[in-house]
């Protein structure tokens, strides 16, 4: 099934309800983490252009040696390639960034929201990819999460 043809309300691969209260989901995640804390194994740094408060245009495909006992190099490369392909597919075009930054003064910086629409697609489909890989790595007791801050983002691998 392609990403374009999935229906979020009926597709069982995505067990979350996109209409759910974000506060309730965050509260449930906090409770789960207190009961079962995650142990950070390694971080995969981002490469290339960053959109502020968003993902990078790509992530490093250099295999971290810390993952050797948990994930094979081939699995890691397949994972990073899929992540980077999803980002490339939904990344806003260069023209979008030029328009956004060019009109930012005239629009009191509201035009910077223009690329944000595409960045939200990147983050949503990146979430689907991470969820699918987390399901396949569940028996290996590994979880990967996407973390972002103002000017950087990374993929963090945890031991459950």
UniProtKB/TrEMBL annotation:
One of its GO terms (cellular component) is membrane. The chain crosses the membrane at residues 94-114. Pfam families: Erf4. Residues 58-140 form the Golgin subfamily A member 7/ERF4 domain. This is Golgin subfamily A member 7/ERF4 domain-containing protein. It is found in: Membrane. Its main location: membrane. The keyword Cytoplasm does not apply. The keyword Cell wall biogenesis/degradation does not apply. Keywords: Membrane, Transmembrane, Transmembrane helix.
């Amino acid at each position: 099934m392609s990403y374009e043809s999935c229906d979020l309300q009926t597709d069982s691969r995505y067990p979350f309800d996109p209409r759910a209260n974000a506060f309730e989901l965050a509260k449930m995640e906090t409770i789960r983490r207190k009961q079962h804390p995650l142990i950070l194994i390694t971080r995969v740094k981002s490469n290339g252009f960053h959109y502020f408060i968003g993902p990078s245009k790509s992530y490093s495909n250099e295999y971290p040696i810390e993952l050797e006992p948990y994930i094979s190099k081939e699995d890691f490369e397949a994972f990073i390639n899929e992540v980077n392909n999803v980002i490339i597919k939904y990344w806003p075009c260069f023209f979008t960034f030029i328009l956004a930054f060019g009109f930012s003064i005239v629009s009191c910086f509201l035009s910077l929201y223009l690329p944000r629409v595409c960045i939200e697609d990147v983050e949503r489909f990146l979430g689907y990819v991470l969820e699918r890989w987390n399901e396949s790595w569940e028996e290996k007791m590994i979880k990967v999460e996407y973390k972002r801050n103002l000017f950087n983002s990374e993929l963090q691998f945890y031991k459950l």
